[in-house]
Amino acid sequence: MTTQPPEREGASEPGGPQSPASPRSPAGDGGPQSPTGPQPPGQAAPPQSPGGSHPPASGGASGYSGPVPPGGWEEQQSGHHGGTAGEGNTPAIVALVLGILGILGAFVTVGVLGVLLGIPAIVLGVMGRRKVKRGRTMQHGGLAMGGLVTGIISTVLGVILIALLVVGIAFLSSNPGFQEDIERQQRELQEP
Predict the structure, then answer these.
(1) 85 exposed, middle or buried (CB, 10 Å; 0-12, 13-18, 19+)?
(2) Domain ranges within the chain, ordered by starting residue
(3) Roughly what angle, to the nearest 10 degrees, separates helices 112-133 and 90-108?
(4) CB-CB contact of 20 with 65 (8 Å)
(5) Cβ contacts of 100 within 8 Å, gap of 6 or more
């Protein structure tokens, strides 16, 4: 979707100071002028894009600036130079999603999902950061860092929860009083 730049004063008057339909030469002779300046006799002016070619006003700058660049004025002003604009950073997004799911899953599955989802989140987070660092894309550098951090948290949390589970089971199974309590409760449940 492209937006048309705002109308400027004098643009609606034919032959006005900023009218793209009939720009005047600096000499005031009424001859047409190209966007890049006066053309020598016998040379044609570069083609103009249909529908006008004014860039949006920025910082008070005014005047005729020529045809619309490929991709439109919005892409030119967005500041995305380098890397392809269409190439995303999918590893960064997936890393963040896996890291968050790993943190939540670690509590539900006593650490197992934390480890299983955290390790791929770390790997994909590093891949996403490298993609930004090498200039292959300018997108989602923060998401890649977030995926890396949540992946590390998920993995560490999962390992801690699994370790606590193992220590708890080992402690409880080595306690003779605990084993007697379990046997007593089982007998009570079986008796009517």
Answers:
(1) middle
(2) 92-183
(3) 160
(4) no
(5) 150
Identity of residue 11: A
Rank 43-52, 158-167, 179-188 by mean pLDDT and report only the highest.
Answer: 158-167
The first and second tokens of residue 152, run together, are 């590390």
Give the model's pLDDT for residue 67. Answer: 77
Q: What is the pLDDT of residues 70-128, one digit of tens each?
A: 666 555 455 545 544 557 899 999 999 999 999 999 999 999 999 999 999 999 999 99
Q: How far apart, in Å, do the first and last CA atoms of the chain sit?
A: 75
Kindly state the DSSP code that residue 51 receives in the 8-state scheme. Answer: T
CA 139 – CA 145 distance, rounded (Å):
12
Q: How far is CA 158 from CA 9, 100, 125, 172, in A?
A: 65, 12, 18, 21
Residue spans of beta strands (DSSP E) within the chain: none
For residue 8, give the amino acid letter: R
Inter-CA distances, 112 with 94, 96, 130, Å: 19, 18, 28
Q: Do the beta carbons of residue 168 and residue 162 sit within 8 Å?
A: no
Distance of alpha carbon 121 from alpha carbon 118, whole angstroms: 5
Q: How many CB atoms lie within 10 A of CB 188?
A: 8
